[in-house]
Amino acid sequence: MAGKFTAELWESISPIFRAILEHPFIQGLTDGSLAEEAFKFYVFQDALYLKDFARSLAVASAKSPQDSWCEMFADHAKTALVVERALHEGFFKDWGLSPEQVEQTPMAPTNLAYTSYLLRVAYAAPFEELIGALLPCYWIYWEVGKALEAKGSPNPLYRRWIDTYASEQYAEVVRQVLQVAEAATAELPESRRAPIRRHFLTTSRYEWMFWDAAYRLEGWPVG
């Protein structure tokens, strides 16, 4: 699955991934103890997050040095908006909410910080650094999905979320990005690999923070 460099990246965040799996938000998905209010907060924020994630993917497409990568990231940008939106809108329907109501929800501080970081890297950094920043969102969700799949959930909403990211369809998407990450970094000197490591570590931290923000129903401390 992972090549030498991407395996090294994953190893660098092993404490973060353990902390993610141990977080009460993630634990609560499988044992059913997660308050639905926290899950709803997460889904709202994730819907907002994906808009900027898709924009970052579109920039990755534009910066791709190979045509096949350009096509792949353009397709992923569309998928982030269309397929993920369908998942979210299924939840909204269960809750009797419209997408328009979600649009009116302000971004939580952690969400704004995370997406702002992604967009800065997207527009200011070279292609391989952007891949380093985008990769945790792909990869961590797959690993979380696989880790939770066997446990399942007594809550059908949570089970639907788990099944999405544990699916073979999603796995194939992640494998594609891992292959690009390996190929794009294969000939790079250490001086150009170091920023990739930093971005991968930073956005992995943001992934933990995103779930933690949802668990805490994070709001702005002032104003």
List keywords for this structure.
mainly alpha; 223 residues; Heme Oxygenase, Chain A; globular; 11 helices
Walk me through the structure.
With about 220 residues, the protein is an all-alpha fold. Helix content is about 80%, strand content about 0%. The protein has one domain (about 5-215): Up-down Bundle (Heme Oxygenase, Chain A). It is built from eleven helices and no strands. Helix 4 packs antiparallel against helix 5 (about 65-95). It is globular. The mean pLDDT is about 95.
Can you count the beta strands? Answer: 0
Integer-rounded radius of gyration: 17 Å
User: Which percent range fits the helix content?
Assistant: over 70%
Alpha plus pi helix count: 11
From the N-terminal CA to the C-terminal CA, the straight-line distance is 47 Å
Largest sheet: none
Quote the CATH topology. Answer: Heme Oxygenase, Chain A
Order of helices and strands: HHHHHHHHHHH
Low-confidence stretches: none
CATH class: Mainly Alpha
Q: What characteristic shape results from the CA principal axes?
A: globular
Portion of residues in beta strands equals under 5%
Compile the SSE list and pairings.
Layout lengths: L3 H9 L1 H9 L1 H8 L4 H28 L3 H28 L4 H5 L5 H16 L2 H23 L6 H11 L1 H18 L4 H27 L7
